[in-house]
Amino acid sequence: MMTANSRLYGVYAQKQEGFFMQRVRVPGGRIGASHLRALAQIAMRFTPEAGLHLTTRQDIELHGVREADVLTVQTQLHEAGLSFVGAGGDSLRNITVCGQCEKCGGEDVYSIAVKLEENLSKLAFIRELPRKFKISFSGCLRACARPFINDLGFVARGDGSFDVIVAGSLGARPATGIKLFSALSAGHIEALCVAAVEMFAEMGDRTNRRAARLRHVRQRLGDEQFAAELRSRFESVLKRQVWPEIGRDCGAGKNRRVGVLNFPSGNIPCEDVMAFADAAEFAGATIYINLDHGFELFGERAVELGYLSKYSSMPRIVACPGSASCPNAITDSTGMGDMLRSDLQGVNTGDNAVRISACPNDCAQSGASGIGLIGLVRTIDGVRTQCYRIMTGGKEGTAALMAKEEAILPAGQVGQFIKSYSFGRGG
Asked: What is the pLDDT of residue 316?
């Protein structure tokens, strides 16, 4: 029988009684072809109709796992060298990393993120936090890993040091973080993370989950007092020991980005996973899960994707699982995504991904989006109708600017609005 602690192992109940979602951690979003094949094979056996689901935190999920199969699935994941411990619950979540490419010229922060996660996971209290704790690493000042909507966001400056953004988060009442440090030494990253997690463990609200993130500690104290408290704790932690220089492996990425695939609502059929893994391995490409329900490939030569190239031209639409499986969902976000993929085919939305969240929990990060939808239900002419709050103008967590509500529309009117917004207003 599933318990509250099951979430620490990445297991969440679905709306369908007796079925569960199993989340798998993919440190830094980098995954090997052999691991992808192993996941596809497990899905073929236990969740053949659902395939694999990519998350906005660079994890992979299996949906529709029967309760009787959960332990067997976890055993097979473990035997394949895949981890699910800390994939959910009140714990340190997967540390996210932006991709690095020739065009960006940013630093390869992957090795830092993976070593940091390994070290922080050894803290005795890391699985008993007031709520989840999220960290991201961006390889350059474009801040593509969205530091302003993480509990801690590290942004590489190009000289081996980092800007640090703290205490941002989304949800029903989102707010961006604040800059705590400029040019923090890479050698001080782990000490700062330990100080922040300890502060959160001690001062986070353990009675009201709606006010239990690090951001809420900051809001209770006020920005100035919060920053002073965290800086003081950081100085104290620095004196405890000689901290390892986890940043020494940091350096410019040598490979260029040779492919991007966007999957409908992050869902990939098992046979496509297998074909993709084979193609990437044949080309010697490195596979990253990006933050937008897609794969990015890095290497020295192009990857021959064959029929999978259809995923390269799809509109960038990010949607949470929604009412298809989530008990909290209000609307059918994946269905909305399918509708928009048809409506927006050939429409240029610029750098904006369209992000669709089925409820105010905002799992698709709509509240920070250039174009975002957040589901609700309204009675229109006596009929309960799925509608969406249309959010625009956010910077997707790359800067201290959240989206603002533009309108509330029935689902069937959203596509035309986005077309009008994109063309008529340069959205």
From this structure: 86
